[in-house]
Amino acid sequence: MHYQTKVRSIRCQDRAVRGVELDDGTVVPAEAVIANASGVGTYLELTHAIPSPVRSRLRRLPLQSPGICVYLAVRHPTPPPYLRFFLPGGDAWCRLLVTPAMLAPELSHDGWYPARLIAPMDHTMAETGGVEVQTALLNRVLSETWWQDHVGEYRVIDTRIPADWGAAYHLYHNSMNPVMTARFMRAGRLAHRSPYIQGLYLAGSATHPGQWVSFCAISGILAGDCVVEDLGTC
């Protein structure tokens, strides 16, 4: 087991996996690799063994930003609904207040209840504007009264902007997925068993069934099943 170890590249020869190169230059031989990094990032940043037309197509995919998130502690239980959406109007995207203690009051701690504020953000805007623009959206959402009036007394426990998500989870260009356009969905998400590199398997972002913890866990199971089928062992 190599904990807290960054992979520099996936070593390939003759379109087949040969191992992984770690950040310190160590090469770990392998005939199968399951990559739980972004599927797009795995192909574009960790290996150069895929065909040029495929690389070009992947580079053109529009990406989806994880947006901003504020983790709150609210003083009193909030009334329904569990998910409260807000549409600011104009060009502004929706906001969402999540109050899980409404369904699970046992989550309270010393009279405080967890809640989250979530707002999506255009990926191009987030990348072009950088931390300054991302933080401005975070502060704007925090200052809005639609959710403050609903929760009453609150404390901000933590915040995340796209740059934070990217740094914490090594996201490809601070994105959590390609945009689920009709064209992308018709073509299908990236296959768990790579059709380009023998022995390479993908899990997580850009694969079926998608992001979020439960979905990523399912994608890992599906990728693992492919390994078992191909190697004939478990």
TrEMBL record:
<dbReference type="InterPro" id="IPR036188">
    <property type="entry name" value="FAD/NAD-bd_sf"/>
</dbReference>
<comment type="similarity">
    <text>Belongs to the carotenoid/retinoid oxidoreductase family.</text>
</comment>
<protein>
    <recommendedName>
        <fullName>Amine oxidase domain-containing protein</fullName>
    </recommendedName>
</protein>
